[in-house]
Amino acid sequence: MSAGAALFRVYRPILLPFAGIVVVVHAIITSIVASHGEMNFSMWLVLIGSATKYWLFVVGIMLVAMQLRQFVTNGVTRHEFLAAVGAFGLTMSASFAAAVVLGHQAESLALEAFGARGPDYPTLTLGGMVAEFGHVLPVTAGYFVSGGLIAIGFYRWRAWIGLVVMLAGAIPAAAADGLLGINEFGDLPHRLPYAAALAISVAATAIGAAAFHRAMSDVPIRRTAG
Amino acid sequence: MIELRGVTVRYGTTVAVDDITLDLPTGKIYGLLGRNGSGKTSLLSALASYRRPASGVVRVDGADAFENAAVMRNTCFIRDTLDANDSDKVRQLMCFAGWMRPGWDADYAAKLLDLFEINPAKRASALSRGQKSAVGVVLGLASRAPLTILDETYLGMDAVARAAFYRELLDDYLAHPRTIILSTHLIEEVADLFERVIIIDRGRLLLHEETDELRGRGVTVTGAAAAVDTFVAGRTVLGEQSLGGVRAVTLDWRPSAEDVTRGEAAGLTFGPVGIQDLFIHLTSPAQRLEATR
Lengths: 226, 293
Known about the structure:
CATH superfamily of the largest domain in chain B: P-loop containing nucleotide triphosphate hydrolases
CATH architecture of the largest domain in chain B: 3-Layer(aba) Sandwich
Distance between the termini of chain A: 30 Å
Oligomer: heterodimer
Radius of gyration of chain B: 21 Å
Number of strands of chain B: 14
Number of strands of chain A: 0
């Protein structure tokens, strides 16, 4: 089995319960809130919009702290592992971004069907869905890269170097979230024109990914304690 | 052929492996011996591409080993600490090895788990020290990797489990010949398995010899204490044991046929030297200078 296929199989039993839990939690909370009046914000954006990016952030950390050693000890090179991580990160970031947009639309339709959608609820047009996807995807990818960078800083170097790397490692997530993050009202940020914000965010993520690749490409495989 | 050329491993300013050059023909069982902190694990880490040497190169069949997919796929390095996440179940570890290892034998792994009485449903965190070692042995042997490196994998295993490990190692090696490197401190227990012995000390290669040649390098003289003392006078003594009036002395000396005849006439018997005695002699502080000459 290829390293990429193995990575997806390792995370499948983690991903499915995660998806199930957040969807059920969303349904319960939305039902409670909607029972008290019309909703003028998207609970989906609040819960799932946050959960997806933080989940990818944590997975970025886990890939270094847990899966790197697991794969290398089973005969996978660091470069094969990095290729698998890249494919996994891109696929999960795109899937989660799509889930955020499609779930938002599904929530909108469900609230309308139950008469609980308020006049200020952030409804989506087809163009709005594309725009939302274009904002969420760089954010999820930025968080994923930041997770990996922060973890490799502590894995490869001493703690104080790890702290320095942590600050730099947070830049992809901070840049993406600050320039492209969407709030619960579906507001798109307007600090910079979209093209400029996207370019800065993608550049920060790409530089972060390149730094991650460099740090991982010959990292010694640490042993566990005990 | 596995070749190490000028391999040096550093941790900051500490030199763990110092310019080691070594040729290891494949298809043999090697014993890697060295005192604590001698650089065994660092050398093996470089050999298995777990760590890039600060200088020098490791080649397997002529190809650079570091980050070489074909070489790494055929190398299995089991360290004294089980390389597993605490939350992983033993069954998951076996399953994952089955996905990634081309030579993985699931039936053999199941048999070994049964032999070592390991419950596959247990998580790594719930295993005792010896059980973790046994899981490492299972992963190492069932991988059937052409280069299998076992670094003190016996730690915490009781005598019964260790005996089972050695028996399985030899049986599986005979059935599926490959290169096995065993790093150990329990020299006498496993010395009979070694076809070649490598001794390193303070990061430097001290000795690399066929086991039989190494055993022939010294001799154990046994007999009445007075006769032994007379016979060994002036020789380099590696070790000695006395029981009542009988004394056994190990010498760093190859006796000639005349020497043996003379000794036997004095009531002495001659036997091969223990690898451990030679190891102790070669790596004891007083002998380092002499041994490296």
